[in-house]
Amino acid sequence: MKKVNRHFHKGLTTKIGKYQFIKDNKSCFKVVKMCKALEVSKSGFYNWKNRKLSRRKVFNLLLLTEIKQIHTESFEIYGSPKIHKILLSKGYLCNKKLVERLMKIANLRSKTVKKFHPTTTKSNHGKSISPNLLKRNFTSKMPGCVWCSDITYLEINGRWFYLTTIIDLYNREIVGWDLSESLETNSLISCLDKAVKLHKPKRNCIFHSDRGIQYASKEFRMKLNDNKMKQSMSRKGNCWDNAVSESFFKTLKSEFIRHVKFKSIEEAKKNLFFYIEIFYNRKRIHSTLGFTSPIVFRKLYEKRCA
Question: What is the pTM for the complete model shown?
């Protein structure tokens, strides 16, 4: 019984703590001897062991299991408000304070968001500039009417690569993305081609971006014209004119990129596919979308129009 004595002297002084110790070690020692050494009754131990949890405790345990799963699937970024919304959508009747308390007990926290200020596009190029058609109105009445785009950099195995994205302002869905080794216009055109093929923008769809040389290039403007799209550009040196794209890159980097290391561009593409296509577009809820994911929000629109 030396093991019992060691644990006892380490602070095993509460009755519940003693019962738990006996339960954990009953395969090593006889229950009678441990009860005697810890000065608790055998009947008291068995009453505790065979106790029935209250309905509230059972519910809280089930709820905590669900909370842990949601927290893990969200790359540990969701705090209690968003987890609470998801629980309600799954049919769990609970309040936000309970979710917050259970997360605190389980030591579950949302990852903090770091600020990023990337500068990847060259705007002092002397090419003609398109007018700002959005004027910071980042809303749209239906899918395929207003798209915005930007380019950011990612470090992969000591080298810089460039991620181009296109976002539909109706539901914040990433409708196109491309990872490239350079800032050549071809990557942007490839990204647009994929977005157009999959999502078929409306005629005169506005395509908004900064003044980067890729967006001002003749080749890209011809591609927009071929697809009957109207170009819009931010004012000079004003990143807030393209705030939605900037916000997505901040989210991507704080939630995902800074927590992983890619060994190759192929590995990066696979992981980005999972984050963008599987998680962000299909699962990540947005407060601006009524706490639904981009694709769910779009499908609700399509259902209303059917």
Answer: 0.72
